[in-house]
Amino acid sequence: MSAYRVIKSEFKNLESLKAALKSIGYSDIVTSSTGNSISMYGYHNDLRPEKCAVLVDRKYVGQASNDVGFAWNGSTYEAIISDHDSRWTFTPEVIGKLKQQYAFHELSRQARQKGYTVQQEATPQGTIRMKLVRR
Amino acid sequence: MPPIANQPHEIHIEIDATGKIVGEVKGIEGPSCETLTAWLDSLGEVTEHKHTKDFDKKAKIQVNRR
Question: Which pairs from B53-59 meet CB under 8 Å and 24+ separation?
Answer without folding.
Answer: B54/A1, B54/A2, B54/B29, B54/B30, B55/A2, B55/A3, B55/B29, B55/B30, B55/B31, B56/B30, B56/B31, B57/A2, B57/B29, B57/B30, B58/B29, B58/B30, B59/B4, B59/B28, B59/B29, B59/B30, B59/B32
